[in-house]
Amino acid sequence: MITIKTFAQIREISGDSELSLPLPENCTTVAGLKAHLATRSSAWEQALLAGVLCAVNQSLGEETSAVNDGDEVAFFPPVTGG
Questions:
Q1: How far is it, in rounded angstroms, from Cα 68 to Cα 47?
Q2: Using an 8 Å Cβ cutoff, are 6 and 73 in contact?
Q3: 53 close to 62: Cβ distance less than 8 angstroms
Q4: Closest listed residue to residue 73, CA positions, set 60, 12, 46, 36
Q5: Looking at the chain, which runs of residues are DSSP E strands?
Q6: How far apart are CA 47 and CA 66, in angstroms?
Q7: Are strands 2-6 and 72-76 parallel, antiparallel or unpaired?
């Protein structure tokens, strides 16, 4: 199982704050997981458009970051300050 958490606009658009699901086959990276989640609904597809940041096990990740069974993956929008 993996845990997926969403924050801010990603949560609002997808409608999910947290999901637990079996690690999908062939989803070994964040990019693969995003592609899989985008097939769940048009809301998920919209939520994961370009610019979404991620963390794997509470460490900032990238599209190429590995995703393994038992991981926590979080998606959140870029943060800007002033």
A1: 22
A2: no
A3: no
A4: 60
A5: 2-6, 18-21, 53-56, 59-61, 72-76
A6: 21
A7: parallel
Supply the pLDDT for residue 69.
95
Q: What type of residue sits at position 64?
A: T
- With contact defined as beta carbons under 8 Å apart, do 35 and 71 qualify? no
pTM, two decimals, is 0.91
* The pLDDT of residue 50 is above 90: no
Distances (CA, A) of 61 to 6, 14, 22, 44, 52: 14, 20, 20, 19, 11
Distance from C-alpha of 26 to C-alpha of 36, rounded to nearest angstrom:
9
Instruction: Please tell me the predicted confidence (pLDDT) of residue 80.
Output: 58
